Amino acid sequence: MCAVNAVQTYRYLQPSALRPAGLDLQTCGGPAANPRFFAGFLTAPVAAAAGLLAVAEVARTRYHQPVNPASLDPVVTGSRGGLRFESFSGCCGVYARLDVLPAGLDGEVAGHGTTNVDVNPPLREALARVGGIEPLHVAVGPDDLTVSTMDGAVVEKKVPLPGRWLRGFAEVQVLTAGFEPRAEIPAGEAAAFLRRLPAAGDRSVLWAVPAGRTLRLTSRPTPGAVCLAGAGRLAALRGLLRHARTLRVYGPAVRAGSPAVPSTWELDTGAMRLSLTLSPEPYRGFSGEGAALLALAGDDVLDDAELVGALLSWDPTIDVAALADAAGLPDARVRAALAQLGTAGRVGYDVAEAAYFHRVMPYDAGRAERDNPRLLGARALVERGAVERDGEHATVRSGEERYRVRRQPDGSYTCSCRWWARHRGQRGPCRHALAVSMVAAPAEVPA
User: Domain named SWIM-type: which ranges (predicted)?
Assistant: First the structure.
């Protein structure tokens, strides 16, 4: 299936470059035109260069059916919590993030904002040459903006932002919000573990089980195990390994017989964290996981999102309980509102902090919903009156077909359609189950 691209136009004063004074990252947006919301040194320059290269490398890599490198720019957010760089792989199956914490910054965070960063080939080559004790200075955006007129031109860069990225941001924050820490091992053991992994291109689904100070690989899930699908996708961690203290692994709870699930693998240097979140299988992109669909289906979610969005601030983390109190809403509706805001790229989730964080990207709040065929199909079924409730179950008419949707004790749904039979709920609900959830009483909609 071809992804639909939304082409946004960004203006850069000049290309990003590594200058004698340090790393000058040109930005394309934020609270003001070409702002500089941070200017200062990175306290661990070699490690920071390795982390930035890892995020940029993921952005230009397609792990499933590799072809020519992608050319997508990572996203950078600045706030009181530090600097955060994010990217998706070209296949949308790997989400990379580098969090440079306050301890990693020697400078003042003068403002806040989110933008795309121009990490071009010359800059990647310059970062690769950073070594020794040479300082690395980061200026996120120039101090001054020169506007072009008919007498002259600014540097203009058109960046295609696939709809898959937008849906990927929404899906990842919903999926990772259910993760728990599963293992933590020293960097030395992590290096040995990564060396034992299958080569790049291997598509097998393995499971990592904590075993003393290391991790042991198995072919079957057991309680406490972490899914590792396409182990070669962890290659981007290797550049930062020698600077790291620990490797932490996060994932959802699993049991014997569990299907493949996503997981997060995070290197911590003390001053920064580099994490890779892997989709459940190498061929699966996060954009199609469907984890956010039920949260987006509620009648009140758009109004709730508008209210919650107005209460967001640029705090390092978002406190759901505090938001619920301020908005006068139950926690479940706040989380659904955050999922809706995630479709516009306005929030993400940090597994290390077990908390949401704030960002702003150039998407409107309804874009992901409009581009999601299952959600559009479900709303069309509801509008046609195709849902017939029968207690906790329902029949959904679609053309000449009748589908039976059943609500399970855990709040999930099963359906008699071929789509559900194929995926068994592993890719979110089908459009028939979504339609039933839209006409369900509020108390019946799962949190």
Answer: 403-441
What one-character DSSP code corresponds to residue 318? B
Residue 161's nearest CA partner among 153, 169, 149 is 169
- Max alpha carbon distance in the chain (Å)? 71
Which of 361, 413, 362 minimizes the C-alpha distance to 387? 413
Mean pLDDT (the chain) is: 80
Query: 416: domain range?
Result: 372-447
Q: What is the three-class DSSP state of 398?
A: strand
State which amino acid sits at residue 176: T
Residue 366, phi then psi, degrees to nearest 5: -100, 5
What confidence tens digit (pLDDT) does each residue in 166-195 have? 778 888 988 998 999 999 999 999 999 999
Residue in 398, 404, 393 with CA at minimum distance from that of residue 382: 398
Angle between the N-to-C axes of helices 163-176 and 331-342, in degrees from 0 to 180, rounded to the nearest 10: 150
pTM of the complete model beyond 0.85: no
Containing H/E element for 306? helix 301-311
Q: Which residues touch 300 (CB under 8 Å, ≥6 apart)?
A: 333, 442
* Under 8 Å between Cβ of 287 and 305: no
Whether residue 284 contacts residue 327, with contact meaning beta carbons closer than 8 Å, is answered with no
Q: Which of 160, 191, 209 is the last residue of a domain?
A: 160
- What would you report as the CA-atom Rg of the chain, rounded to the nearest whole angstrom? 22
Q: What angle do CA 191, 196, 200 make, to 5 degrees?
A: 100
**CA 238/CA 410 separation, integer angstroms:** 40
The arithmetic mean of pLDDT across residues 293-302, rounded, is 71
- How far, in Å, CA of 163 to CA of 357, rounded? 21
Residue at 148 is within a domain: yes
**β-sheet bridge partners, residue 210:** 215
pLDDT digits (tens, 9 = 90+) for 389-430: 887 789 999 888 999 999 888 778 899 999 888 888 778 889
Q: How many separate domains does the chain show?
A: 2
Residue 80 placed within a domain: yes
Burial, 257: exposed, middle or buried (Cβ in 10 Å; 0-12, 13-18, 19+)?
exposed
Instruction: Tell me the per-residue pLDDT of 24-48, one tens digit each, with 9 for 90 and over.
Output: 666 655 555 455 677 777 889 889 9
Q: Residue 329: left if φ>0, alpha if ψ -120 to 50, beta else—which one?
A: beta
